[in-house]
Design a protein that fits this description.
Number of helices: 6
Number of strands: 0
Helix content: 55-70%
Shape: globular
Strand content: under 5%
Oligomer: single chain
Length: 143
């Protein structure tokens, strides 16, 4: 029963990321490349920034922020910004449509969420902290 809740939550989150990125792209077309990525990321965080604003990411960057940014980036590069389509360098017929991108982002979110549930020691865990990882790698380089 809990798995069904995770699947539904991640489906809703992926839909929010894709819809917000698409909406930002239609409103800012030709003005800003980052608009859909930022709006999709904020939309996919589930209201994380409502109470504390940007202060929420001062100490750590949670996995839901990273995954929302990744989903918005996939939608923006593969669907909305066709000249930047990564796969179009190989073949112009390979770029995907919005429905396929939405399904891809949804599957990535679901797999990552179930992976966090069954394999909590991996980098996909809720305690994954990108800033701490960066600080740790800087300390290792100094040595």
């Amino acid at each position: 029963a809990n798995e069904l809740g995770v699947i539904l939550e991640e489906t809703f989150r992926a839909n929010s990321v894709c819809s917000n990125a698409q909406l930002a792209w239609t409103k800012l077309k030709g003005i800003s490349f980052m608009g859909p990525i930022v709006c999709g990321t904020i939309g996919g965080c589930g209201g994380l920034f409502v109470l504390n604003g940007i202060e929420e990411i001062r100490h750590d960057i949670r996995w839901n922020i990273i995954s929302a940014a990744f989903g918005a980036l996939v939608v923006t590069l593969q669907v909305l910004e066709q000249p930047f389509c990564v796969l179009s360098a190989l073949n112009s017929d390979i770029c995907i449509d919005m429905d396929t991108a939405r399904l891809t982002v949804t599957m990535i979110f679901i797999i990552a969420a179930l992976g966090r549930k069954y394999f909590p020691e991996t980098f996909l865990s809720a305690s994954f902290n990108a800033k701490a990882l960066t600080k740790k790698s800087r300390k290792m380089k100094k040595k």
